[in-house]
Amino acid sequence: MEKLRKEDIPQEAFDLYDYYCHNKLDRRTFVEKLSAYAVGGITVTALMSSMMPDYVNTRTIEPTDERMQSSDYVMYDSPKGGGLIKGLLSKPAGKGKFPGIVVVHENRGLNPYIEDVGRRCAVDGFISIAPDALTPLGGYPGNDDEGRTMQAKRNRDEMLEDFIAAYEYLKNHPDCDGNVGVVGFCFGGWISNTMAVRIPDLKAAVPFYGGQPDLAEVPKIKAPLLVIYAELDERVNAGWPAYEEALKANGKKYEMINYPGVNHGFHNNTTPRYDEAAAKAAWDKTIAFFKANLK
């Protein structure tokens, strides 16, 4: 079946998909509500097929890319979180030590998209680790539906500890120069914001369309922030004004970019919410931000 173009999918369908992705609708209710937009020759099956992630044809960096020394799975200890956690460690080609980036997944575990983001960091000159918070439950199951169900069973604060432990692992890695930042998407955006609160030595944080941290803890933030939002993502954006007020009141260094006309998840190139122009601009900005601050 030929997939629909993004332009063929009503915004209301994207909004439903957002609720479905964030466990606010079960699959049956999602399909029932989606049927209202199956008009003009567009079927529910076509809508569903077009909105689900495509991990087969969307990889941008191969694991054997010559711009990397390696991209392999490692295990590291998270004593306050889930115990031993699996992560994808990707190292740039070349000699010497490299600045590091922790890459934090969405609410569905370490899927192929996030692994690809970890490798993108490596080809841009950073050693990266992309942990899988589903490790204590057996790891990412191979599809996002099951991954969301699994992740909902874990305690959010324990998962936060898993990513803090990943920061410590990367900072002390023999191939890392000790300067470490974090980038995260959706759930990972909240983790990124909260790591900035929890880790005084964090060098930079880039939360993509992520929930805001506890505003009472904003005074603890030391790292500069590059905060990425999507204009159509009203659910997450609603928390920004109060967050910005707290950042300003406490003299924190930040930049916010709200990309116009795009949806939550616009950086994820595996679904129709992807916006190529905004995703490229946001990623270029992210890499430039890390190069300026991880030193």
Care to describe what's here?
With 295 residues, this protein is an alpha/beta fold. It is built from ten helices and eight strands. Strand 3, helix 4 and strand 4 form a beta-alpha-beta unit. Helix 1 (11-21) packs antiparallel against helix 2 (27-34). The longest helix has 18 residues, at 276-293. The chain is globular and about 60 Å long. The termini are far apart.
**Share of helical residues:** 25-40%
Structural class: alpha/beta
Count of runs of 4 or more consecutive helical residues: 10
Task: Please count the beta strands (DSSP E, at least 2 residues each).
Answer: 8
The shape, in one word, is globular
Q: From the alpha carbons, calculate the radius of gyration and give it in angstroms.
A: 19 Å
C-alpha end-to-end distance = 49 Å
Largest beta-sheet details: 8 strands, mixed
Strand fraction equals 15-25%
Report low-confidence residues grouped into runs of 5 or more: none
Question: Order of helices and strands, N to C?
Answer: HHHEEEHEHHEHEEHHEH
Mean pLDDT: 95
Strand order of the largest sheet: 1-2-4-3-5-6-7-8
Which features would summarize this protein structure in a list?
alpha/beta; about 20% strand; 8-stranded mixed sheet; about 300 residues
